[in-house]
Design goal:
The protein is mostly beta strands and about 675 residues long. The protein is built from 5 helices and 36 strands. A hairpin with a 6-residue loop joins β15 (about 350-355) and β16 (about 365-370). The model is unreliable at about 1-30, about 505-515, about 535-565 and about 580-585 (pLDDT under 50).
């Protein structure tokens, strides 16, 4: 019933002017009497006794009356979502898992794929705004670039200076080395012209690189026909360079390159298929390295020319990320400090278990369809190549130290095993079963022949020096227990040496706990240290069905454990190798040679990986950290002895969605590349 205003006036006289606006009792708001008593304290027309619009779950907040638990700012960008109203707070947030956007979710993009974004609300964690998101060569120089010849180089330009802004073909001769091969009578003349302008800035999507043309001496020698050239680089730097690329640019049409490159990028400005990449290094001070390039001349009587660029490639981390909850996992790379993020793939299927080649020129990963297959891709997202083709799934690739081959899990290849480890060319050649899930380890695991249901090996990791592969095998009866096995390798031929060696054999009387591994073993840069995460199941009680009991039997069985520890460990393999003697039968306890990097954390940690860089005698271990409902990536700095000085984890990636399986570039070893 609506109360007539003349009655209110008679009852309250002069007090009529200060009544609350919420004055009805017919279900549209608070009754007159409850309003008079202040039951709607926050003035949102909801409160005690307010009919169909009440009660109020928080009568001190005018933004909520039903959705108190749903009104959140999960990404901490100051914009809320899930509230009943936004009277005193900004909202609604168009994506409460993306701190970069609250209004512009549909407009925030990198249309020209130069890693600079436009149309976003915030640019704290990404580069932008892009001054021209339709031009990949300009992102911050639109008002400053003076480019008279239209080659995207010039004064104040993002790509760098132009030493001749009258001719679009001559900007490279000041930034790059140039090789000119000219006919003489008789013979040939070969010249190498060094750059006249040194600019360290490199525009190369997906790669952290610095141009070092000004810090190297280069020389070129030719054969009698001048169609085979050897380029030799000598470092002028006082520090070690862990990884160098020679990028071939501006090859004239008369010359066709015959030497297969280590990779090709997606820059089609000069080469229709992209620019050829050749990997050098590591290069010590005053040291030299060479590469031989073979050419086929279209007109044998004419000369040719080309330019090349020398890039110092820095360490990067690759991982899988979901751009949003509805999008498949894509590959993303970042620097070890969390900057320079670049999305590598844009697929309709999940991209997972990624790993870099030691030279950084390729990324191998698994793509899901009806089953998983191994693919490779250049860090800028170009040259996507399928390596494996079934019949079953393939996962967890690992590059050989020369970057030319891959080992990976493969299912359905052998009739006598459930899962094997296969070997293949990195570009997808003839796949072979490299470590058989049954016959390769039956001789060192006697109980493996006793009707195992899961005859499988998986998660291979090739050491940087090429002398070892560590892989895993599941226990035949105790599904939650795993073996670590080490296969010695010939680093020159890539052949296996002897049988695998068990690193944690069951039945060892000193073995007080079991290790259940949830991710692959990752080598450190010295091939003596590695990371792995493990849940240590300590014998504390039987588990007959659903409850723990204190009467554990001895020896323990699979139902006799409780979770005691989870976290990434560092393992020193030098003492392990000294104890691995032929004919050993007792096995080894892996834990006796492991050093805990992290004693305890609030949450779970998995998938650790060691950085290959050792600048200032420091490395980094990065790993997944689960402290909410999603996996983020965090890191810990270590000294040269792999000791952490503080257990304070440092966040690297936290998007509010899952970011699993981080992996650093492996170190590049001398002698394995050109």
């Amino acid at each position: 019933m609506k109360i007539p205003r003349w009655i209110i006036g008679v009852l309250l006289g002069g007090a009529l002017l200060i009544l609350p606006a919420c004055e009805y009792e017919d279900g549209n708001g608070c009754s007159f009497w409850t309003s008079l008593l202040g039951a709607d304290a926050d003035g949102d027309n909801h409160g005690t006794g307010c009919g169909n619009l009440g009660p109020d779950c928080d009568d001190t907040n005018p933004n909520v009356w039903v959705s108190c638990d749903l009104c959140l700012d999960a990404d901490a960008d100051g914009w809320y979502v899930g509230c009943d109203a936004y009277a005193t707070i900004p909202g609604p947030d168009c994506s409460d898992s993306d701190s970069r956007n609250w209004i512009s979710c549909d407009t925030c993009q990198d249309a020209d794929s130069d890693s600079w974004f436009a149309g976003c609300d915030d640019y704290t964690h990404l580069d932008g705004p892009d001054c021209d998101d339709a031009d990949p060569f300009h992102w911050s120089d639109c008002l400053t670039c003076v480019d008279k010849d239209g080659d995207h180089y010039g004064t104040g330009c993002d790509l760098g200076l132009d030493c001749d802004d009258r001719d679009p073909l001559y900007f490279s001769q000041c930034l790059y080395f140039e090789v000119l091969v000219s006919p003489l009578s008789p013979g040939w003349d070969t010249q190498l012209i060094p750059p006249t302008l040194f600019d360290p800035t490199v525009f190369y999507r997906g790669v952290s690189a610095t141009r070092v043309n000004g810090q190297v001496n280069a020389g070129v020698t030719a054969n009698a026909d001048a169609d085979s050239l050897t380029i030799t680089l000598t470092s002028l730097s006082a520090t070690n360079w862990p990884r160098l690329w020679l990028v071939l640019r501006n090859l004239e049409p008369n010359a066709q390159l015959l030497t297969p490159p280590d990779a090709e990028n997606g820059n089609t400005l000069y080469f229709p298929g992209g620019e050829s990449v050749f990997v050098f290094g590591p290069l010590a001070p005053t040291a030299s390295a060479s590469v031989t390039l073979d050419f086929d001349r279209v007109n044998p009587a004419e000369g040719y020319g080309f330019a090349f660029d020398i890039l110092l490639i820095e360490d990067r981390l690759v991982f899988s990320a979901k751009p949003d909850a509805a999008t498949p996992f894509q590959l993303v790379t970042i620097r070890p400090d969390g900057t320079g993020r670049s999305q590598v793939t844009d697929l309709a299927l999940h991209a997972l278990t990624a790993t870099f080649a030691p030279g950084g020129e390729q990324i191998a990963f698994a793509v899901s369809a009806d089953y998983y297959d191994i693919w490779t891709v250049h860090p800028d997202g170009s040259h996507l190549t399928q390596v494996s083709h079934g019949p079953g799934s393939a996962l967890n690739p690992s590059f050989s130290p020369d970057g030319k081959s891959l080992v990976y899990d493969c299912i359905g290849r052998s009739p006598d095993s459930n899962q094997d480890i296969c070997l293949n060319d990195a570009q997808g050649g003839a796949e072979t079963v490299f470590i058989n899930g049954f016959s390769s380890i039956a001789s060192v695991l006697p109980d493996y022949t006793q009707g195992w249901y899961l005859k499988k090996v998986f998660n291979p990791t090739w050491s940087p020096d090429g002398t070892k592969i560590v892989f895993m095998a599941q226990h035949p009866q105790f599904y939650a227990r795993y073996y670590y096995l080490l296969q010695n390798m010939d680093p020159l031929t890539g052949d296996t040496i002897g049988n695998p060696i068990i690193l944690n054999r069951p039945g060892n009387p000193t073995l007080k706990s079991w290790i259940t591994v949830t991710s692959s073993f990752k080598w450190g840069p010295d091939s003596r240290h590695a990371t792995f995460d493990a849940i240590r199941y300590t014998v504390r009680g039987t588990y007959p069905g659903t409850a723990f009991y204190p009467n554990c039997i001895d020896p323990p069985d699979a139902r006799c454990f409780m979770v005691d520890y989870n976290g990434p460990w560092i393992l020193d393999l030098a003492p392990l190798q000294a104890d691995l003697l032929p004919g050993q039968t007792t096995g080894l306890n892996l834990e006796n040679y492991a050093v805990r990097v992290l004693q305890s954390v609030s949450g779970l940690s998995q998938n650790p990986t060691l950085s290959a860089e050792q600048s200032d005698k420091r490395v980094i271990v990065a790993f997944n950290y689960h402290y909410t409902s999603v996996w983020s990536i965090v890191s810990l700095p270590l000294d040269i002895n792999y000791v952490v000085s503080s257990t304070t984890i440092q966040p690297l990636v936290n998007d509010g969605v899952d970011n699993p399986l981080p992996s650093f570039m492996p170190p590049l070893r001398p002698g394995f590349y050109r």
